[in-house]
Amino acid sequence: MTSFKDLGISDTILKAISELGFDKPTPVQDKVIPLMLKEQTDLVSLAQTGTGKTAAFGIPLIHWAKPSKRHTQGLVLCPTRELCIQVAKDITAFSKYIPKLSILSVYGGTRIDQQMNTLRKGVQIVVATPGRLKDLLNRKALDLSHINYVVFDEADEMLQMGFQDDLTEILSHTPKEKNTLLFSATMPKEVSMIAKRYMTNPIELTIGTKNAGAENVRHEYYLVHPRNRYLALKRIVDNSPDIYSIVFCRTRRETNDVAGKLINDGYNADALHGDLSQAQRDQVMGKFRSRNLQILVATDVAARGLDVHDLSHVINYNLPDETAAYTHRSGRTGRAGRKGTAIVILAANEQYKLRQIEKKIQKKFIKCLIPTGEQICNKQLIHLIDDVKKVAVNEEQISPLYDDIAANLAHLDRDELIKRFLSLEFNRFLEYYKNSTDLNVIDKPQQRSRRDRNKRDTYRDAHPKQKFTTFSLNVGRRQGIMPQGLIGKINEIQDVGRIKIGRIEILRNSATLEVESRYTSQILGAFQQSEINGKTVAIEIARTPSVKRKYKGKRKGGFKRKIRH
To answer: Does 336 lie in the same domain as 241?
Structure first.
């Protein structure tokens, strides 16, 4: 079995990583470290979140850095503040016994003058977010002309967050002769383009299967009506008494809403999103890491780079638009050899998304039933009894009080004492779930043929006086668009009630749909700049209705679908 010593790492670095408790390298470390210590080549490494990438590139950076030279020699680019801070912290720990080697993290939300002062003193390795790094370059506070190494950490996330132009500008400040290392969980075309444009004959290493989920993660889904998402979430949480989880939401508003409801219902929960200040984010993450919070409700962007290794569950309150985002979410559990569970709370009209994710990660989702109130109460009861049996009794502290307590309870027999104990500890669950209903949606197979379904009347047909607006979209069958997908997108709009949908027409490269006119602004907001199967959606109000006459037979390039909603 390979050890860190077998990789060619210096004794000073070995001493530091040994103190950190690292005994053997992960697969990505085993492949990347010896390669970078010997060849110093450009490298593309595809590996999932939580596989030890920081040590894989951090140890070679430390190995080649020269503390005697004050200029910056290594640059690591990260998509978020949290990841930036964590990477710098880890590299600093690896270099504990290398004197005068300076590592600095630079990111927004903190005073830039303090970072500039540190840079003036000399920093060999800079770990940065693109935005703050650009600011420092514009102020001429950082010189990248002597850089030997550039590392893109979570490159796919940086591109998904819109940093492509920033990366191009940053790289223009670096020398042509340098080594570029790109680490990514997925390999979308944008990442491939960066590799081709800015790297020289890079070696590609794939750890595991491209786009595959972590091996230790079980993928489950629960089918519910959209209005019951929160109730389903509560039951899932209550059915896992020791849950330690991140709940992923799509928007900041939804994040605040879900976290607020959980807090009001007595759960140890809090929200993490982009509207928080750095001090607030640090406070929330400090409570979560110390397990004073059991549930962290977060957006994808806010959760990037969180260094939490022992999550029991990742819960998708809503599925993300991109498969790559699901890969990142689920990769936050099942780390370091532990088992983990990734859960999706799914509406019936979103099942096509699940099939797409299954193809990408090459894993099947297991359909589970939302537990009943009785099942949850039994689970909580067993957990409570297990906790009681595990309690360590301190005889010395209990002894002075025992006689008085025993005398006060002497009139209760054994059965009565057990019943009262359970009632005291357990009444909340018993009361809440005593009249609970079944939240499961029965997934009935579609019996009617496509031709029959196309013949159905729409709400528009049944209500001719209702005002509808027709919208045009730049996505169609080539992007895998289905009517139920568009309907699902509309159903996800928050706080508007049930939106009436008219005719939907899917063509090869475009689509049109009719929706109640009073919700025009909400529809434009829901679709504009969202992504469907990798293509950015553009939506506009059509000048004329999508369908003016009844259509019989097939038309070149597409067919008309009429959907009842």
So the answer is: yes
Domain-located, residue 438? no
Give the C-alpha separation, 320 to 300, whole Å. Answer: 8
pLDDT of residue 211: 45
**Containing structural domain, residue 266:** 217-370
Q: 64: part of which helix (H) or strand (E)?
A: helix 53-64
Describe the strand order of the beta sheet including 366-368 as a list of residue ranges.
269-272, 295-299, 245-249, 313-316, 340-347, 217-224, 366-368
Are both 245 and 326 inside the same structural domain?
yes
How many domains would you assign to the chain?
4
Q: Which tens digit of pLDDT belongs to each residue from 98-139?
A: 999 999 999 987 889 999 999 999 999 999 999 999 999 999
Token pair recorded at residue 353: 């998304």
| DSSP label of 532 | E
CATH of the domain at 528: 3.30.70.330
* Alpha carbon of residue 134 to chain centroid: 26
Same domain (yes/no): 164, 29: yes
How far apart CA 470 and CA 515 sit, in angstroms, is: 7
Same domain, 410 and 557: no
Closest CA to 361 of 185, 161, 152, 157: 185
Q: How far is 212 from 47, CA to CA, in rounded Å? A: 9
Look at the block and give the residue holding tokens 């103190």.
19
Q: Where are the beta strands (DSSP E) in 309-395?
A: 313-316, 340-347, 366-368
- The answer on 322 and 227 residing in a single domain is yes
Give phi and psi for 245, each to the nearest 5.
-140, 155
Q: Report d(CA 348, CA 476) in Å as an integer.
A: 21
Asked if 471 and 542 count as a contact pair (C-beta separation under 8 A), the reply is yes
Q: Pick the closest to residue 141 from 112, 103, 111 (CA basis).
A: 112
**CA distance linking residue 551 with residue 558, whole number of Å:** 12
Cβ atoms within 10 Å, residue 78: 28
Is 166 in contact with 136 (CB distance < 8 Å)? Answer: no
234 CB-near residues (< 8 Å, 6+ apart): 262, 265
The pLDDT of residue 232 is 94
Per-residue model confidence (pLDDT) at position 448: 39
**pLDDT score of 455:** 34
Residue 444 lies in a domain: no
Residues of the chain with pLDDT under 70: 1, 48-50, 160, 187-188, 190, 208-214, 304-307, 336-337, 425, 443-466, 494-497, 529, 532-534, 543-565
pTM of the model: 0.57
Tell me which DSSP letter residue 214 carries.
Answer: P
- Based on the domain organization, do 378 and 365 belong to the same domain? no
Is 413 buried (19+), middle (13-18) or exposed (0-12) by CB count in 10 A? exposed
C-alpha Rg value of the chain to the nearest Å: 28
